[in-house]
Amino acid sequence: MRLIKPTYEILTDIRNTEFTKQIERIARVCYKSEDLIQEGSDLKMIATLLKNKHEAMIEHAPVISVLFHGNRGFSHEIVRMRLASFAQECVTGNTKISMSDGTKITIEELHELQEKGESLPLAKSVTNDQLIVANKIMHVFKKKGGDVYRANTEEGYSLDCSCEHKLLRNSNEYDSVKNLKVGEYINVNGRPSLLNIDEDSLVEEYKDLSPLEISEKHKIPYRSIIRILKKLNVFTPRKNDKNPGKYNINHTEDSYKKMKETIDNQYKNGRVVWNRGVKESENKSVAKQAETLRNHHHNNGKGEENSAWLGNSVKNGYSRANRNFSLKEVVCLNCGSTAKERHHSDKDTKNNEEYNLLPLCVKCHKLIHKEMKKCSYTKLSRITSIEKIGVEEFFYDLEMNSPLNNYVAEGFITHNSTRYVNYSKEKFGNEISVIIPDYIENLGQEAKDIFLSSWESSQNNYMKLIGMGVKAQVARDVLPIGIKADIVVTTNIREWRHIMDLRTADVAHPIMHELMRPLLKEFQESIPLLFDDIEY
């Protein structure tokens, strides 16, 4: 059991002098007195607003976000403040969730399917061995929104989520976005995102550039660009051709008509290739085609003359140029039949060392690659940026079928809803984090020992239930109300005044005193006048 103190962290720069100036500008608009704005008039205006109880103007100041590390009791009380937004682990509605069949569905669309009573498809989860497998979605949650942060990796992955959303840092260890730093590595879907621009940017580029030019610009295969454009339903053959007239050279209205008649006649008794069996001497077009092939057709040679030649290394009948071999004495490692191909065991096609090349028959080689597509492994990807990008009205989250409490969102391996957190997988081993506030520390040793004994017993019983296969969302019923719970509270200054007035009063719960009273002092120091009149 890990005992920690309740703490908080102010996520907004509250020393910004624009707070009071913005309140004044908006209030002056309402009172038609914009001409009275001058240096220092903002403080006088706010004093007048507070004195006259005209606090509606204060709602227009920038919102303030505070991260609280409290317990369940604290989180259950603070969420009663209905004008505030609360964020724990969640993502934005347009986040694409990876399904087990290879498709992607936004989490908002999954929520709509759930609301209609339709069955939810299988999604992807990650095992303790970092293997990506199919898993059942138990429930889709829709929550109040808040500040949105975007995490990007060097391979083009991008995720929009709350600062509390947890990502898989390394083997079985999750950490919140707010704790991650640029340069650190996190686990992502095993198949990297080759295109380093978003789909909207790709469509814009396609207006002026051809698929070939886009592929050369971003250094990814030409066919990948074609595939993505077709998926987006924007691909048009020859759309970006620099010389579209070349396809119409020597064609007239009569020639098009004659061409159509010829094709129609060919289909009357079944389509037959027009030049089948026709000799060069019998048709000018056939003669011209044959001559062109003789002059321009590329016949790839053997050995060093072959364009795919990678060197003269041939081991056990295997050529690096084509990765095929046909020696009868080499057998397939899987079925024992004659091996025709080699498989790269580390999945690196450039690693052609003998130890990495496994002899397989064609059928077994195809089966292995089919399984690799169905369930690949995660890989580590370096974080290139984490930044706040705005505010979202609603957040979403998933409950996945235990014990795989995670899902793949935009390629990131993310933890599922905190409601279903498996506390036995915390990074402190089998220790559960419990908040021990001052009011328990000050009860005396005998009373404190009773709390510690009760928490220890709850922890042991919880671990036993998890070991018996009981789901985390069921086993959590034995956990104490003192267990650690993180929550972000975002609201305007008027609501913060209301929160402070209620939660710093003598009648408030001691856990509220321990977190809210120091926070009120910081507000009074950084934003004087707006909070100075609140006393306890």
Describe this structure in words.
Helices cover 31% and strands 22% of the residues. The protein is an alpha+beta fold and 536 residues long. Among the domains are: 140 residues, Gyrase A, domain 2; 120 residues, Endonuclease - Pi-scei, Chain A, domain 1 (Beta Complex), CATH 2.170.16.10; 49 residues; 52 residues, no CATH class. A four-stranded antiparallel β-sheet has the order 2-3-22-4. A four-stranded antiparallel β-sheet has the order 10-9-18-13. A two-stranded parallel sheet has the order 1-21. It is extended, with a radius of gyration of 33 Å. It starts with a strand and ends in a 10-residue tail after the last helix. 26% of the residues are buried. About 3% of the residues have low confidence.
Second rung of CATH, namely the architecture of the domain at 2-16 and 62-87 and 428-526: 2-Layer Sandwich
DSSP strand (E) fraction?
A: 15-25%
Low-confidence stretches: 313-328
CATH topology of the domain at 2-16 and 62-87 and 428-526: Gyrase A, domain 2
CATH class of the domain at 2-16 and 62-87 and 428-526: Alpha Beta
Largest sheet: 4 strands, antiparallel
Q: How many alpha or pi helices?
A: 15
* Average pLDDT reading: 79
